């Protein structure tokens, strides 16, 4: 819901960084892989209850996620790069609630499982529609510089990182935060399915 506003704010500085890295011969895929590797460090840190240090690596991962797109725009967005980026993004997203579950399974297991289940819903509805949008050559009016058709929703990247920040700052309230965000994700999934179904049905009839 907030991604288009966040992108408008950070796009210019990211493009400057992306141009500099491109000049150094660094590729978008290298940035993607480095960001994922650094983000993966958050999982054991969360599991061992080093929440603030884990937050540092979570934020680094999200910064790299913005930079890789800026680097890619220097040479042109590629489908292979987009596939790599989104696949690693979803793995990273699911690793964060898993870390909290490992830290305190007796308190966080149920809420963490529900949140990961909710992530499956947002992810599958997002990617399934992207496949069909590509098949029917549907235009993406909001995120025109993306390799995949990005469906808007109540919970996008900006809301997700905000949720992770709250979890790390208030780890003892993880269950409540996860439950609330899971409900928001379920709402996003349902609206995406409704919108996606009717959009594709209309495209089929044209």
TrEMBL record:
Signal peptide: none
Transmembrane parts of this sequence: 33-60, 81-103, 109-136, 173-195
A Pfam family reported for this protein in Swiss-Prot or TrEMBL: CDP-OH_P_transf
Lineage of origin: Bacteria, Pseudomonadati, Pseudomonadota, Gammaproteobacteria, Vibrionales
Homology family: Belongs to the CDP-alcohol phosphatidyltransferase class-I family.
PROSITE patterns in the cross-refs: CDP_ALCOHOL_P_TRANSF
UniProt keyword Cytoplasm present: no
Protein name: CDP-alcohol phosphatidyltransferase family protein
Entries under InterPro entries matching the protein: CDP-OH_P_trans, CDP-OH_PTrfase_TM_dom, CDP_ALCOHOL_P_TRANSF_CS
Domain of life: Bacteria
Keyword annotations: Membrane, Transferase, Transmembrane, Transmembrane helix
């Amino acid at each position: 819901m907030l991604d288009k506003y966040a992108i408008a704010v950070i796009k210019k500085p990211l493009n400057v960084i992306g141009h500099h890295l491109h000049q150094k011969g660094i590729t978008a895929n290298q940035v993607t892989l480095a960001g994922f590797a650094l983000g993966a460090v958050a999982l054991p840190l969360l599991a061992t209850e080093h929440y603030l240090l884990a937050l540092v690596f979570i934020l680094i991962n999200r910064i790299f996620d913005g930079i890789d797109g800026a680097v890619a725009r220097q040479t042109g967005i590629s489908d292979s790069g987009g596939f790599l980026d989104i696949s690693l993004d979803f793995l990273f997203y699911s690793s964060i609630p898993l870390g909290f579950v490992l830290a305190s399974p007796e308190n966080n297991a149920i809420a963490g499982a529900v949140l990961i289940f909710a992530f499956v819903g947002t992810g599958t509805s997002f990617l399934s529609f992207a496949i069909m949008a590509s098949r029917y050559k549907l235009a993406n009016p909001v995120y025109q510089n993306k390799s995949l058709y990005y469906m808007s929703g109540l919970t996008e990247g900006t809301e997700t990182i905000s949720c992770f920040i709250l979890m790390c700052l208030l780890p003892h309230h993880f269950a409540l935060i996860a439950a609330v965000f899971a409900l928001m994700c379920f709402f996003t999934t349902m609206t995406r399915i409704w919108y996606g179904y009717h959009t594709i049905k209309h495209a089929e009839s044209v």
